[in-house]
């Protein structure tokens, strides 16, 4: 039964991009509350599908004003009477005139059972509306970083479609908007300490005198906004060579930095001017602000730190204790900026390359509200940035970038259901409806099933990721200790609900097969970088959480509980999945760990000895060469297929980078164990092992006082 159910979960995700915590639902609100875990859905918008169906006509919509659901395979259809009943509101609707031929043998494409997900290519949609890409570049960086960054920017230009509109803003102490003019090199300077709204920019840049292209036609015959053409955003097809010259001409900030001081960097002002410039020229038209930032904002808007290097950038402790001087003001500034960008249909990307923090914790709303991309690296010389941009600008079969702008996701449910909210990179449209629940989570505003059916159709991977997202959401308002306590309480309750046990007898505790790995996932979630701050800065924590909130179930469970593969000389290049446990650390094997953010290859002590002494180069040990090469090849393949690119680490047992693996595995063997005698794989830590965690869970679940 379990294999069959898991196959259904995988098929649903492959076909529709959907995974649900419970795939069989109770009939009442009271019964739903007893489930403890939320009835949630993990959904992947714009998921790539094999044999996807694209319909070349407008969707057929229910005529009920408060419904307007789209015809689908779940609707009942009367082909003789040419009627269909809406599955959401039960309203009977007439077929449109174009469906006069429809019958059981000649069905419209959206009514086939396999058409649970379809795409509509609307004939009256937007035509030839160019997308704006506005580069925002930090010039307070090292010369080697600037050289590498310019190479990356030039490569990205050649990846964009020819009809793309491109522009450039650079910033240091001042912010410069570069004019795209073949006759003269010209840039407009703005103070980094002053906020300029869109009306002021329009006046200062004399954009009122610019001409505009004809307004595009939107769906259903509505007129869209006009597409301005101006001296700051020009079509790449006309200005590619000029843009290359402008990018090549980017210079370091000319203001000298005194010893012991930070660069006077106006990050907030640059992003504010970029958002307002696009609002002036491309309101409600797709646009992308691509910011390349090499350090923290020290000047004016969005400032997070003083220029004195003796004053360190705020830590998690400073924020929790309200000791971060600029935190609240900067956060409020970036939230307002993010709302403005989102309302205009513009995404804000952050590509950061710095040894210290840049203020990402304060800027996180720019990512969450605009669905912007985030890449974190130590230097612009790193291949992480250039390779991530190549994947970002990859073209589809039609030659277009695989991006979508101004997308609106609307959820239709029957009257028996209400929506509490959405957790992920989105913003509420503020549309009121009867389906909106009173309790808000995230951004929001047969008829009877028995427990065994609900239990058997539980998707523990999807539930773990949903629980992780809820935890991240709660962390915006609660302390970590409170969120971990909330996690523990929910785990105890769900185990009491679905396990079998005898009161006060921990050894009698048994979980059903569909729940057996759930406590382990929660154990690793408690140890994950989403909830544990040790050795992570606020910016790094923001990076981890931001990526987690936008990825699918498989990626999410990888972040919570990394995959570990073992390579043995006996199996050659074939890998074997092994437990993320200290017992998997062996001297004569190679391990490959995928945490999603990092791909690590770990050589055991014996393998290191063979490698250092060149055994793999001897003909009689040819199998060792195959064995040692296999994990490296597999790691490169994983890295190349992911966006943003993960860090790639190759390390040996006992080396400094081995700590990345030791920090993730379950410390089932530690130096504090009563029988410890220097065993292979022992971890020097005070963290509790999963075995201790599970034993404590058993006691709490079966306790008569629980």
UniProtKB/TrEMBL annotation:
Q: Which residues cross the membrane?
A: none
Keyword check for Metal-binding, yes or no.
Answer: yes
Q: Residues in domain Sec23/Sec24 trunk? A: 130-392
Which residue ranges does the record assign to the Gelsolin-like domain? 574-661
Molecular functions (GO terms) = GTPase activator activity; zinc ion binding
Q: Which GO terms describe its cellular component?
A: COPII vesicle coat; endoplasmic reticulum exit site; endoplasmic reticulum membrane
The annotated topology with respect to the bilayer is:
Peripheral membrane protein
Q: Which UniProt keywords are given for this protein, alphabetically ordered? A: Cytoplasm, Cytoplasmic vesicle, Endoplasmic reticulum, ER-Golgi transport, Membrane, Metal-binding, Protein transport, Transport, Zinc
Protein localization: Cytoplasmic vesicle, COPII-coated vesicle membrane; Endoplasmic reticulum membrane
Q: What does this protein do?
A: Component of the coat protein complex II (COPII) which promotes the formation of transport vesicles from the endoplasmic reticulum (ER). The coat has two main functions, the physical deformation of the endoplasmic reticulum membrane into vesicles and the selection of cargo molecules.
Q: What is this protein called?
A: Protein transport protein SEC23
Give the species.
Answer: Artemia franciscana
